[in-house]
Amino acid sequence: MSRSCLAVILAAGDSTRMKSSMSKVLHPIASRPMIAHVMAAVASAGMTDAALVVGRDADAVAKAGAVEDVTVEAFLQTERLGTGHAVLAAKDAIARGYDDVLVAYGDVPLITSGPFLAARQKLAEGADVVVIGFHTDKPTGYGRLLVENGELVAIREEKDATEEERKVTWCNSGLMAINGRKALALLEKIGNDNAKGEYYLTDLVEIARAAGGRVVAVDAPEAELTGCNNRAELAQIEKLWQERRRYELMLSGVTMIAPETVFLAYDTEIGQDAVIEPNVVFGPGVTVEGGAVVHAFSHLEGAHVSAGATVGPFARLRPGAHLAAGSKVGNFCEVKKAEIGEGAKVNHLTYIGDAFVGAHSNIGAGTITCNYDGVNKHVTRIGANAFIGSNSALVAPISIGDGAYVASGSVITADVPADALALGRARQEVKPERAKVIRERALAFKAAKKAKG
Ligand code: UD1
Ligand code: CA
What we know:
Elements: E1 5-11, E2 28-29, E3 32-33, H1 34-44, E4 49-54, H2 58-64, E5 71-76, H3 83-88, H4 91-94, E6 100-105, H5 113-124, E7 129-135, E8 144-148, E9 151-156, E10 170-179, H6 183-187, H7 204-210, E11 215-219, H8 231-251, E12 255-256, E13 269-270, E14 275-276, E15 281-282, E16 287-288, E17 293-294, E18 299-300, E19 304-305, E20 310-311, E21 316-317, E22 321-323, E23 328-331, E24 334-340, E25 345-348, E26 351-357, E27 362-363, E28 368-370, E29 380-382, E30 387-388, E31 393-395, E32 398-400, E33 405-406, E34 411-412, E35 421-422, H9 434-452
Parallel strand pairs: 1-4, 1-6, 4-5, 7-11, 12-14, 13-16, 14-17, 15-18, 16-19, 17-20, 18-21, 19-22, 20-23, 21-24, 22-24, 23-25, 24-26, 25-27, 26-29, 27-30, 28-31, 29-32, 30-33, 31-34, 33-35
Antiparallel strand pairs: 2-3, 6-10, 7-10, 8-9
The chain binds uridine-diphosphate-N-acetylglucosamine and calcium ion.
Uridine-diphosphate-N-acetylglucosamine is lined by residues 10-13, 53, 77, 80-83, 85-86, 105-107, 142-143, 155, 157, 171-174, 200-202, 227.
């Protein structure tokens, strides 16, 4: 759509029921602030400029709401006088003149672009106000959409509604689209003569009609409109978000054995034929290519898992972990800021940090890259086809050449050239009969003690 579009996002509610020291819209869903979800929805509906109406934490909210290619401005609503008043807090933005103005709520994060796109289509067809409504069997608390002769004539708030009007089950989501050229004039006509003494955005329906304008409604699925007022609702929204995304991924060809135990981040990408076993947690920034397997109880964040690689069970991939095709990171291994080359194996109880592991190398159980000297981080480079014996400590900065061997139990502090064998451990001594001597002495000591009483 070539029409210009401003989104006004209302986020000035005092969020008392969250019992939080930060604005409600900063609380995360799927590892990113609620407000960012709303912003993503309006951005994919074509919004290019955003006005965030906030009551607190203005800078943090604007920062959390930042989207690529979108100008985001925060407007402070100092007094909370209703939704109509809140939209007018962004008066300066609206006054710039847009074709379309969208109104969204910062605390309704499951919303997608669909309802906004449908509403913008109605504006393009000549509507002045488009109400986004929904049907529900629990209408209590919502504004009701009142229809006469098939036309939307008013939105009646619960508190102002008659007994008869309260029976209506078609409700106002609160989200709206307004003809941007007329928006300011219409908004400025809103008064506060109602049960709550607030400036109701919903009055736009009657105001626009009185001015001879066209008002229509489009419907959104109720599931997208769940709002967040307290931590229990936050958890409920998280649950709904997770269910929706797991479902999408499964339909796109990802196997999840127990999907309800897999937790995804907003940007988790998983390719076709990947298998995600139970109890896997994805933090932000993870991509898993097709055919990879993530075994149970693994935790991944900022990591890339290439085709055919396997992770876990009980593996931790931290930011910057990059597993090449067919590589393996096994149980109780932690990988951070490290490349694990094609077909390389890091199978047991190992820490690989700030490192490069070449193709087809084998990292034995208990190997540790000692990357930190207490002040700085240093890099470990391991070539291709190297073999690091179990329980070795590689003290970085260090490099191990292609095809080199490190004997198990070594502490490696000097570089190892290609194809060399490095031993960095005490030489073994064997003393025949010595164990027996020690044991007999100990037994004699015990017997003497007992005899003394
Ligand atoms: C509003 C609608 C109602 C709709 C319901 C959907 C009005 C008058 N009523 O009612 O028809 O069914 O939403 O949830 O619009 N906000 C501000 N500043 C304000 C007031 C509100 O930023 O001064 C923000 C809140 O943070 C919230 C949103 O606007 O995100 C809605 O406010 P809320 O008080 O929840 O509206 P309702 O009375 O529930
Ligand atoms: Ca509400």
